Amino acid sequence: MKSLIYAIALTFIITLTAHAYSGPKGLYVLEYPVNMPDVSLQSETNETVHLLDSNADLTILIFWSQSCFPCLREMKRLEKFYPQALEDNIKVMLVSPASEWRNNNEERKFLTKYGAPTLPFFNDPNNKLSLSLGIGSTPYTVIMNKEGKKVATIQGEADWSSSKLYKQIKQLIKAAPSAPLLSEPHGYSNLTNAPLN
After folding, report:
1. Where are the domains of the chain?
2. What value does the mean pLDDT take over residues 1-8?
3. Of 55, 77, 163, 164, whose CA is between 20 and 30 Å from 13?
């Protein structure tokens, strides 16, 4: 009986840790841009949105879950980040599993409660996008350029109020892919080792 209780407690701790994992903080720029998967998401108005149809200079996809505490801590800062990003033709997309929500009203109320009443959200049916990108924990950010290539990631919680982070993201607009594109990244270059929060 003791071993059963221990096994249950251990499973609970591992699950909780997986959801709360923040990972190493920092913006990581891929050495070689990578083709993004050609998948669709569902918008708040239930429209089908093709990921690769974005006309933005950059598209920032923040993968999150309602049970992820670091994700919820990001929301207020993302809400303030969003209008500034729009001005610079940077699209911000919150992406969560479609299975987490009964309907879009529930999701909007949840985001409003945590300080993000206007952030655009998108649902990932059957987790197709997150599985295609190999995302196993949240929060996780993927930055895509105008050509539909993944150019950078942030693993874990980011400080979206950081002017340093914003400048680094804007530098990605100017960085044109000059190296051959690969189906998988072979290496990352860390743009900054400094914590972002």
Report:
1. 2-190
2. 49
3. 77
